[in-house]
Amino acid sequence: MADQRGLVIDAAEEVAALVKALGEELTAFRQRALKAEARVKELEAAGGGDKVELIGRIGALEAENQTLLSRIESATERTEGLLDRVRFTRQQTESAGETR
């Protein structure tokens, strides 16, 4: 019984760490996106820069954004899986406590 509770605590701590890391990563991505948008507006307002170069850079940033979104989705799925495992373990622990 104590081992199961330890597993639940370990799993919960792992989920909490993943959620925290995911939140920090999402915050960093948002900051980068805001900076990139501000830079694009700045360049557009200045009228400078080679449009072909800017279009290429935008394409690269959009591709990077898709990669990052995919990583976030994958991390979210892993976190949800861990959360499901924690719930299952908690249910098993509670069921074991009721049968005694």
Explain what the structure shows.
- By secondary structure, this protein is mostly helical.
- It has one domain.
- It contains two helices and no strands.
- The termini are close together.
Give the topology.
Elements: H1 2-46, H2 51-99
Helix pairs in contact: 1-2
| Rg for CA atoms | 22 Å
Shape: rod-shaped
Mean pLDDT: 86
Instruction: Please give the oligomerization state of what you see.
Output: single chain
Number of domains: 1
Taking pLDDT < 50 over at least 5 consecutive residues as the criterion, the unreliable ranges are none
> What's the order of the H and E elements?
HH
Whole-Å distance between the termini?
A: 11 Å
What's the β-strand tally? 0
Q: What structural class do you assign from the helix and strand content? A: mainly alpha
* Beta-strand content estimate: under 5%
Number of helices: 2
Largest sheet: none
The level of helicity is over 70%
The gist of it:
This protein has 100 residues and is an all-alpha fold. It has helices at 2-46, 51-99. α1 runs antiparallel to α2.
Which key phrases capture this entry?
mainly alpha
